[in-house]
Amino acid sequence: MYTLINKIWSATIITVLFLVNANSQTNWNVTVSNFSFTPSSLTINQGDVVTWNNTLGTHNVNGMTATFPNNPASFGNTVQSSPWEYSFTFDIAGEYSYQCNPHSGSMQGTITVNTVTSITDNANNDDIRIYPMPVRNYLFIEFSDKKAKTYSGIQLFNMNGQIVFSQAIESNDNLRINIGHLEPSVYFYRLQNTNGYIDTGKILKK
Prior knowledge:
Elements lengths: L1 H15 L10 E7 L2 E3 L2 E5 L3 E6 L3 E2 L20 E2 L2 E6 L4 E6 L8 E7 L13 E4 L6 E6 L7 E7 L5 E6 L6 E4 L6 E9 L4 E8 L1
Parallel strand pairs: 1-4, 3-9
Antiparallel strand pairs: 1-2, 4-7, 5-6, 8-9, 10-11, 11-14, 12-13, 12-15, 15-16
């Protein structure tokens, strides 16, 4: 086990050399109108949200893998007349295609989701206590009084930048997260603040 931990931390040091500041989750808007998606092409980051807003006509968003087998995940809504909004969080990196079913010949769009590769370690933040370290099954997160009830969610990423755990936060008094199913490795956490601030760092799972 000691050798495994040494290898993991060695890999972490190499990885962190290439990591820079993380950007907060971004919300992107696409207007559905005049038989088009505007913009029709987006490049976003893993974990970002895209919201389609139908302002005119009868349309839908179809990014289902049944229609586009190469999409990493399915997304979409039913055909409806305006006005409507539909949002989807892109947690899996890759290339996505989508269309409006009634107007598939003219209404098509693409979304490129980049892998998250930028996390800064804020482990010395006195406002947050994360333990035990290393962790085997349950990870505990405690917040100071001035940080209490200001976080909306937590995500864990593996060393490839893929999201392996995501959970909404309803109460910040004391979080207890079961990560016993994850493989022993280094993971990076990202705590999303309701005001848009991000706290990040790394944990060691044994």
